[in-house]
Design brief:
Order of helices and strands: HEEEEEEEE
Distance between the termini: 50 Å
CATH class: Mainly Beta
Number of helices: 1
Number of strands: 8
Length: 165
């Protein structure tokens, strides 16, 4: 019975991931193109796992100093907040010192904040972007430590279309 309820819960989260709205904002990262600075095993842990709406798989970079994960939203959106769901078990703490940035042009970066961590099992991390943050790309990057991997279960970017392109 527990497995059945867990499956129903994950399906509900997946459904809500795609269609849920927060004050006109939707998850604009859902099923968008994701690139990592490196890949641990691209066929088993592709970047697309980070934005597929499922909380039971991951994307994993290789071990490096400052790994990053970048989401191409395809066009500009007004960004309200970014949510990241940490992995479970003893690997959750690998998510730490994450800098969140949004931009359209490389010379117009918007910092949405930094999460120090380390993350706890399944932790939901939320950073709110400054008012009127607009961008086409969202990046998470670990900025401290000598040997890191970036490996979230899911990344959600809450935004809405903007008339400014």
């Amino acid at each position: 019975m527990h497995s059945f309820l867990l499956a129903i819960g994950l399906l509900s989260v997946s459904y809500a991931q795609k269609w849920c709205k927060h004050g006109g904002y939707t998850n604009v990262a859902y099923m968008k193109k994701v690139t990592l600075s490196s890949y641990h095993n691209k066929s088993s842990y592709p970047g697309s796992n980070a934005v597929n709406g499922k909380l039971n798989d991951v994307t994993v970079s290789d071990w490096e100093v400052s790994p990053w994960l970048r989401i191409d939203l395809g066009k500009n959106f007004k960004i309200l907040k970014i949510e990241v769901f940490a992995r479970g078990g003893d690997v959750a703490g690998r998510l730490h010192d994450v800098e969140f940035t949004v931009w359209s042009c490389p010379n117009r970066l918007h910092s949405c904040g930094r999460y120090i961590g380390p993350a706890k099992t399944g932790e939901r991390i939320v950073v709110f972007c400054p008012k009127n943050t607009v961008g086409e790309f969202v990046q998470l990057q670990i900025v401290e430590g000598e040997k890191n991997e970036i490996s979230p279960m899911e990344v959600r970017v809450w935004g809405k279309p903007t008339t400014k392109e």
